Amino acid sequence: MEKGFIQLIVIIVLSIIIVSLLGISLGELFQNQVLKDNFSITFKALNYVWNNFLAAPAVYVWHTLVSFVLDPISKFFQK
Predict the structure, then answer these.
(1) How far, CA to CA in Å, does 14 sit from each of 3, 23, 37, 47, 75?
(2) Rounded to the nearest 5 degrees, what angle is found at the Cα of 75, between the Cα atoms of 71 and 79?
(3) Helix, strand, coil shares of the chain as percentages rounded to 5?
(4) How far is CA 57 from CA 9, 23, 53, 61, in A?
(5) Is 21 within 8 Å of 15 (Cβ atoms)?
(6) Would you call 22 helix, strand, or coil by DSSP?
(7) What is the pLDDT along the chain (79 residues), one digit of tens a residue?
(8) In Å, how far are 8, 9, 15, 32 from 21, measured between CA atoms?
């Protein structure tokens, strides 16, 4: 678990270094209205897809996983 967290931090730091070397200002990038609008539309679309198509199957799979895998494992270790 810690290895994955450290890798994530390294990837973020390297990404910031690469963006800086390319001469891109993150402050100006996040103040760009067109970029904000594009991300807003993208997140609204992803939210729509999640709520209308993916949430119900994901909840079903999660409950199935819990009932058939995690519950028996937890009962085994409680004995």
Answers:
(1) 16, 14, 27, 29, 44
(2) 170
(3) 90, 0, 10
(4) 32, 43, 8, 6
(5) no
(6) coil
(7) 567 888 989 999 999 999 999 998 988 988 999 999 999 999 999 999 999 999 999 999 999 988 888 888 888 888 6
(8) 20, 18, 10, 20
Nearest-10 Cα torsion for 9, 12, 16, 19: 150
Global pTM reads 0.57
What are the structure tokens assigned to 55, written together?
């949430």
Paired tokens of 49: 């897809």
Q: How far apart are CA 4 and CA 32, in angstroms?
A: 32
Looking at residue 1, its pLDDT comes to 54
Q: Are 23 and 13 in contact (CB under 8 A)?
A: no
Amino acid type, 66: V
For 18, the token pair is 């690469």
